[in-house]
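Sync notes, pocket subgroup
Present: LS, DG
LS reminded everyone that the earlier model was apo-only. Rerun requested with zinc ion included. Inputs:
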Amino acid sequence: MIDPDVVSANAVDPENRPDFKAATSLTVLGIETSCDETAAAVVRLDADGTPHILSDVIRSQADEHAAFGGVVPEIAARAHISVLDRIVAAALEEAGVTFETIDAVAATAGPGLIGGVIVGLMTAKAAALAANRPLIAVNHLEGHALTARLSDDVAFPYLLLLVSGGHTQFLLVEGVGAYRRLGSTIDDALGEAFDKTAKLLGLAYPGGPAVEAAAATGDARRFPLPRPMLDRPGIDLSFAGLKTAVRTAAHRAAPLDAQAVSDLCASFQASVSAVIGEKSRRALEVFVKAHPDVAPVLVVAGGVAANSEIREKLDTVTRTAGARLVAPPHRLCTDNAAMIAWAGIERMRAAADNGETVDDRDVSPRPRWPLDANAAGMIGSGRKGAKA
Ligand code: KG4
Ligand code: ZN
């Protein structure tokens, strides 16, 4: 039970509460620790509505996890603890601000690996309490969903395809806090499928870039692989069966020489590009039906968006549909804290428009936190227990 007296005692002192409506600008510290990047950033929104990333510090733990071919939650949480204070200090210093001159602290409160989320959110709560600033608990997916407004000033509504190591979903983004999930993977995330394919073929981690490099010299027709869920209506996706099909083909062709590995990678990449392309086409159709008067925009985010074949496919699909493709810079598409600070700013701005303020100090860390609370649960939900 939450004791209301304790909550109100913890709330921001009303005398010192920043008046967002009258504020000339908003400066927010963002903290991100939900997977294997420890990140802190400061973003400022000018009074004229122009955003500035004042600092964007990221420390990747990829080297710590490489030997295991995937992220190990316990190692991730410990690594966040050991560096987060210095990452935050660096972000403040680089931005030329202090806890006294920022307006709020925003941190990822989920979904993600719970140990890491606890480290980031508790650090943010402590900082917000000490500085007497509001805390904004941000949904990591909301950070990804709103990034295109920070980088490209995209107006609502738009369609988002989020494809990373932890998430694969289509979202209709209609406003701050207004997200409709149109489709999602029912098992593995696409980045996870790239990573597992790389692992079983003996390629390096993270697997996406390694598979793409090998595919460049491969023949996509040598190993016919399934194109999962294409024969079914709807926008949901599935990649677990495809990964098994790669394994079966690899066993049949064993021992694999370098050319066979390249051919398998090329076939895998062709299959996922075809699936992503067709599902994007269908998602755009749904968007146009929902918003017939809006010029359709497809925003693509997440590490897998770096893949050239997938990018080309999305380019073709959007051009054919008369839509615009927006891909924020790679550094903002993968996990970072600028998107968390920005989501905090968006939440504060939206609240101020309604004459409200935001302070989430009583929010608990959440390993699972769907953006669209109305969407039905999936059978599986991507990487188990991680960023699903
Ligand atoms: O967004 P991200 O950096 O972190 C997560 O939130 O997961 O995405 C990482 C994922 C990894 O699974 C990685 O293999 C994949 O993105 N990835 C790629 C490429 N570059 C990174 N997948 C396919 N092709 C690439 N070029
Ligand atoms: Zn992410």
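DG: The two ends are 27 Å apart (CA to CA).
LS: The chain has two domains: 4-148+333-353, 156-327.
Action: DG to write up.
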